[in-house]
Amino acid sequence: PTNNCSSDSVWFVDSGASNHMMSHEDWFRELRKPDRPSYVETGDNTTHPIRQIGLGQQTYLKNYLHVPTITKILVSVSQIIEQDMQL
């Protein structure tokens, strides 16, 4: 079987992620700069700057982080719960 999904468009539901985050700037709407310089640390102990915060273009997910240097699209389970949503 073949998979038509590009690896950079697969969404990962992550119980360990503190925030929703992705690198695709054009997938956001209502972007704003963080109040102060901020970073996220990934499982391989690297840090990545947060450029902007916004809403996902095709979703109702709030406070999505635009992190240009990450390679996965992460959906945070804890943020889903905080936003009173269901998977």
Count the beta strands. Answer: 8
User: What order do the SSEs take from the amino end to the carboxyl end, as H and E?
Assistant: EEEEEEEEH
Number of helices: 1
Overall mean confidence score, pLDDT: 85
Rg? 13 Å
Structural class: mainly beta
Strands of the biggest beta sheet: in what spatial order? 2-7-6-3
Residues in helix, %: under 10%
Shape: globular
Q: What characterizes the major β-sheet? A: 4 strands, mixed
Quaternary state reads single chain
User: End-to-end distance, in Å?
Assistant: 27 Å
Unreliable sequence segments: none
What is shown here, in short?
The chain is mainly beta.
Notable features of this structure?
two-stranded parallel ribbon, 87 residues, mainly beta, 1 helix
Task: Outline the structure in words.
- The protein is mainly beta and 87 residues long.
- The protein contains 1 helix and 8 strands, in the order ββββββββα.
- The strands form 3 sheets. A 4-stranded mixed beta sheet has the order 2-7-6-3, with no helix packed on it.
- The protein starts with 10 loop residues before the first strand and ends in a 5-residue tail after the last helix.
